[in-house]
Amino acid sequence: MKRSIPVGRIFGISIRIHPSWVVIFGLVVWALASSYFPINYPRWPLSLSIGVSIATSLLFFVSVLLHELSHSLVARHYNIPVSSITLFILGGVAEITEEPREPKAEFLIAIAGPLSSMFIGLIFAALWLFLPLRAEIVIAVSFWLAWINLMLGIFNLVPGFPMDGGRVLRSLIWWKTGDLDRSTRIASSIGQGIGLLFIIGGVSLIFYGMLLNGLWISLIGWFIRSAAASSYRQLTLRQLMKGHKAKDVMTDDCRLIDPGLNIEQLVNDYILTSGRRCFAVGEDGRVEGVVTLQEIKNLPRDEWKETKIRQIMAPLETLQSIGPEDELEHAFKLLASKNINQLPVIEEGRLLGMLARDNLLNFISLKEGLSLE
Ligand SMILES: [Zn+2]
Fold first, then answer.
1. For residues 146 and 61, what is the distance between their CA atoms, to the nearest angstrom?
2. pTM (2 decimals)?
3. How many angstroms separate the alpha carbon of residue 191 from the centre of ligand 1?
4. Which residues have beta carbons under 5 A from ligand 1 (an ion)?
5. How many whole angstroms from 157 Cα to the centroid of ligand 1?
6. Ligand 1 mean position to 263 CA, how many Å?
7. How far apart are the first and last CA of the chain?
8. Residue 161's closest CA among 205, 99, 72?
9. What is the 113 CA–ligand 1 centroid distance (Å)?
10. Neighbours of 1 (CB within 10 A)
11. Of residues 276 and 201, more confidently modeled
12. Closest C-alpha to 184, from 236, 249, 242, 118
């Protein structure tokens, strides 16, 4: 998630906070301090209510973090990398970058979160039940945290993909049918339906005067709906790319450009006149690096003459590259996850071509337009 701020690391996973989290943290503190604690503990002075509310809200978000951490640790057990966990306005999200390879892994990764929330809920319930009455503050906090964590666990089991319950559902259909695409299609359709129900429910609550709860539920509905739609879109893309390799789509009219040329020569003699899009730099068939329009744009015009291509190119060692036989989907993921525009296609140190974002998008829209499957 963009603009989130790293606050630490747990088990090597970066923990981040998105600015929108401050809103939900503030709302929880406000709801607790303005009504929940004053109604249940009218003898508490206001300052005590506020202090306890802040502590309770912090503990709640630690619980959310533990929920996400449970998903992440099970994912890691199945060798699926987890880059970060981010707290944001709708709760928490673990950045699990790959899809599980088997239904069992998906089931366990998905169920770990709700189970951990329920487990945390039970621990607080035990505190609430067994502590002596003298510890009134701890009992008050424990009761609320027990209730909210149990609710969180149950809520996440709603079978709207990509919520946890939707993932559990998808893994079960996948396990039964052996067909990941079909189970994704079913689970994301149900997800879109459930998202819509949340939006309708939320809007009705607003009409009944429950503005905050209504807005909150609509927002979650909208989030589920768009996430379900985008996972469906990803599935379609995956099907379009299936069976195609990098060499099918790459541009192969690459001429190696001498790294000793200056930028003015590069622009005048290669970029403007050739119309080529592939600017690989190297000598004797060996690629040393790649130069893109971005690097040229970053260089002031009056330095073009005395700057050699070698000085501004991105060296090959620092670049992501792919092999000609690599699946197109792999290239697509690299382009998207590293946010780059082109990938050199390399075989035994030789440049065979370039695979640019444009090539891929053209290929996809062409196939879609012809409805080839
Ligand atoms: Zn979860």
1. 13
2. 0.69
3. 15
4. 113, 156, 164
5. 9
6. 51
7. 33
8. 99
9. 4
10. 13
11. 201
12. 236
